[in-house]
Amino acid sequence: MLLIHCPYCGARAQDEFHYRGDANVERPAPHAGQKAFYDFVYARDNPRGWHVEWWHHYAGCRRWVKIERNTVTHEIRTVKGPTQDTR
Amino acid sequence: MSVVAADCPSRFGELTRPSHSGPAGPDVISIAQRPATLIHLTARRAQQPALAAAVWERFQLNLPQPNHFASDNVNTLIWIQPEGWLLEAPVDTGNTLCLELKSALAGIAAVVDQTHGKCVLQVSGRTREVLARCCRLDLDPRIFGAGRSAVTLVAQVSCVLLQVDATRWCFDLIVASTYAQWLLDELQEASRAFGSVRDSAALGK
Ligand SMILES: [Zn+2]
Asked: Which CATH architecture does the domain made up of A3-24+32-80 adopt?
C-alpha cells in the first residue's frame, strides 16, 4: 500500500487513486504519421527506477496528480499538480 | 446500532420509517438522516475572489480552506476540491435557492443541484472505533479536529466526512443516495465488533 501525499488533500491511501500511466508521453504533431501515433498510444518504456506517472485521486479531490515513483522501492519522491513540472 | 431516518422522501425508502426496535443497552453508534439541500459550486477560471464575495454577501460565510468546512448551523460550506465547494442548506430552500444561486453566480461559478443524488447521515456514539474499521484516515482530533472535512473512502465508497464535534465524536457523512444503504450495512457490520446487535427491523430487512 502506497501513501500518496495529494497536493490538495494531504496523505491518502493508494486505494483512493487510480494509476493512469506514464506522464512523460507527449502527443505527436497531427501529421507525424502512423508509427508516431502507434508509439504514442501503445508503446511504453518499462523503467527500473524512477518513473514519472499520472495518478487520479478519484475518491478525493478528483484531480490528476503527477508522481515521481521508484518502481523498485516504491519510494515516492514528488507529487505535483498536472501543470507543475516534476523536474 | 439505531437508524433514525427523516420523515421525508428519500431514494432509500426503507430508511424513511423511524426505527422502533433497537438493540438492548446503549447503541454503539446512532445514525440519523438529515434532509438537506446540497448544491455544488465550482468557481469559474480566476473567479474565486468573486465567488468568495458573493458567498459572503449571501451567507456571511467565508469559503473554507482545503480540507475544512465553515458553518453557521444553518448553512454549511464544505471544501471538496480545488475551486469546488459543496453547500448544505436547509431542505426547504430547495430548488428556489439553487435557481437564485444560478442567477447570482452566472459567470462566477457553476451551480449544480446535488440534493437528489446525495444524502447526509449524522453519525454519533463510538464513531471513532467504528470508522477506524472502514476508513483509512486518521480521525484523531489532534489531526482531524472540529471543522475538518475530507472527501475520502468509507467502506470503499466515496464520502464527504465532516468532524462536527471532536469531543463527542459526531460526524456527518455525505454519501451518494444509491450507496447509503450499503454504507449503513457496513457501519452496522463494523459496530458489531463492539457489541451491536444486528437491528434488522430498522433496515426493513
Ligand atoms: Zn486529492
From this structure: 2-Layer Sandwich (3.30)
